[in-house]
Amino acid sequence: MSTVDTVAAGQRAATAAAATAVCCVVRDVVKTYRVGRGTKATQVRANDGVSLEIARGEVFGLLGPNGAGKSTLVRQLTGLLRPDSGRIEILGHDIVRHPDRASRLLSYLGQESTALDELTVHLAIETTARLRGLSATAARATTADVIDELGLGPIAGRPLAKLSGGQRRLACFGAALAGMRPLLVLDEPTTGMDPVARRAVWSAVDRRRSADGTTVLLVTHNVIEAETVLDRVAVVDEGRIIACDTPGGLKAMVDGSVRLDLVWRDEAPTTLPLVAALATRAAVSGRRWTVRTDPGEARELVAQVTAGPAFAALDDFSLSTPSLEDVYLLLGGRHEGLEK
Amino acid sequence: MSVPLPAIELAPRAGLLPSLGAVYRAQLSRARVARIPLLFVATFQSIGILVMMRGVVGAHDTEAARDVVAGSAVLVVAFVALNLFAQYFGKLRATGGLDHYATLPVPAASVVLGTAGAYASFTVPGTLVTAAVGCAMFQLPWVHAWILLVVIPLAGAALAGVGAALGLLAPRQEIATLLGQLGMSAALLLGVLPASHMPTAIRWLRDLLPSTYGVEAFARTFAPQPDWAVVVADLAVCAAVGVLSLTLATWAYRRAATRA
C-alpha cells in the first residue's frame, strides 16, 4: 500500500469514526403552519432553517421559551410531522423519507398523557413495552425494573388520571424508558415534578447513558435544568437556533457581565433619583428588578442602594454570575418565557 | 456531512396480534375503571325503551315485539361502540394522545381493532341483560339468544369502525361527540322502531345502518322455526360492513396520527 493510500485510508477511517459518533443530523429544516381559516389565515414559521448535529451518548438540549419552535422540531424528529423542506437523519436513517422508522430508533415522551390516563401506572408501562415490540415476559420484567428504578412502586396500581401532575409525568417517563432505544427524546420531562422525582429522572438518564451510550434530546424552558444536566444546548428563539454550545461555552459569551437582582418589599421607591435612574434600564418582573452590568458598576450600585434610603424599601438583593437566561437575552431572545 | 452515516439496525416492529392483545387488555382495564357507570346508563336506557314500547306494541310475541327486543339489545352495542368510541378517538386526537401510539412501532390495525374489541366486549353484559329482560317482558323465546354472542362482535365491529372513523375524521372534538350522538340516535330510532311502520325513504336509511343487520339477525331467531339461511346472510352483511368500516377506521387513524 502506498503512502497516499495509507493516508487516504486513515482519513476514511477518521471520517467514518466521526460519522458513527453522530446520532442525529438536522439540516435546514423549515416547517410552517397555517393559522386561522379562509382569508384570515396566516403562515407561521415554526422552524425557520434549523440545523444541528447531536453526538452519540450526548445529552443535548433545546432551550427556549414557549412557542419558540422546540416541540415542532422534536415532532419532526420523531416522525410525527413532516418538514416542508430540509433533512433529518437519525442513526443513519432518513426520517423525512421514512418517518415510520423513528419509532424503531427512539423513545419519545410527549407533553400529553391522554392515551395512558386511565391505565394504572403498571399497565401503562407494560402496554407501552409490548407496543415497543417486547415479548410478554420481557415487557413484564422491564416494567418491574422501571417501576423499581423510578420509585413508582407505591403508585403502581393507581390510574394515571388519579395522580398529581408530577407523578403522572414520572409514570409517562417510565413508559418512555420501557424497551431500549438508542435515542431518548424527552419533551419537558420534569414539568410539575418535585426534586425527588427530578433526581430520579436524571439518574435514570445518566445510567442509560453510561451503560448503553444512550443519546438524549431534551426540550426544556428551565434554565437551571439546562445548565446542570446538558452537555450541549441549542438556544431556540422564534423558530431559529440562535446559539449552540456547551452551557459553559455559552456563558463565556457574556463573561464580564453580572446580574444584580433587587426585590422591593412593596412599590419601588421611584421618587429616589438613584432608583428612578435604575428604572430606565432594569428588566421588571413584578417586584423584582434585574440589572445587567459590569462587576465594577454592580458593586457601586449595591453600595449605593444598601447605604441610602432605598435600602428601607428593599426586601432582598443578589449579585450573580450570568446564567443561560442572560445568554438568551444577549443573543436577542425575547424577555419572558424562560423558567429559572 | 458528505459521508453517508452507517445506519444502525432498526428495533423490531411490534407484531399485529401481540400488540392487538396488549391494546385490548389495556383498553378493557380502562373500560372497567372509567366506563362502568356508562354501561349502566346504556343498559337502563335500553330497558327504559323496552318498558315504553311495551305500552305501544303490547306484551305479545308479534313482529313488532321482536324488533323492539332485538333493537333494544343491539342499542347497547351502538351506545358503547359508536357513541363512546367516537368520543374516545375524538378526544385522543384533539388532545395529542395519538402521538403516544404513533411513536411506537405498532400497526394501526392493532390499535383500532384492540380498542374496538375491548369496547365490544364491554357491551356483552348489558346486551345480554337487555335481551333477557326483553324476552321476559314480551314473552319471547330465548333459546336462540346465544346468537347475541355472534351479533355483538359483528355489529360491534361495524359500529365501532364507524365510531372510530367519525372520531378520527371530525375536524373538532365537539363535532366527533355530536356525530357519535347522532349515530346513536339513528341506531335507536331505526333499530328499535318496527320497520313495517316506517316510510320507504326511512327504510332505505335503515338499510344503510350497519347495526340493522345485527338487529334483524337477532329478531329472526325469535321465530318458532328461524330461517337460518337469512340469519346467516344478515350476519354476513354485518361482517362485511364490519371489515369495511374497520378498514376505514384504520385508514382514518393513520391519517390522524401522521397528520401535519
General description of the model:
The complex is a heterodimer of chains A (340) and B (260). Chain A is α/β, with parallel strands linked by helices and 340 residues long. Chain A has helices at 3-20, 70-77, 121-131, 136-149, 165-177, 195-212, 223-229, 247-252, 273-279, 295-307, 324-330; strands spanning 22-35, 42-55, 59-63, 85-90, 93-94, 106-109, 183-187, 215-220, 232-237, 240-245, 258-264, 283-285, 288-293, 314-320. Chain A has two domains: 9-251, 3-Layer(aba) Sandwich (Rossmann fold); 256-321, BMC (bacterial microcompartment) domain (Alpha-Beta Plaits, 2-Layer Sandwich), CATH 3.30.70.1710. Helices cover 36% and strands 27% of the residues of chain A. Chain A is globular, with a radius of gyration of 24 Å. Mean pLDDT of chain A is 87; it is low at 12-19. Chain B is mostly helical. Chain B is built from eleven helices and no strands. Chain B has helices spanning 16-34, 36-57, 63-94, 98-102, 108-122, 124-138, 148-169, 173-192, 200-208, 210-220, 228-257. In chain B, helix 8 crosses helix 9 (200-208). The model of chain B has no long low-confidence stretch (mean pLDDT 86).
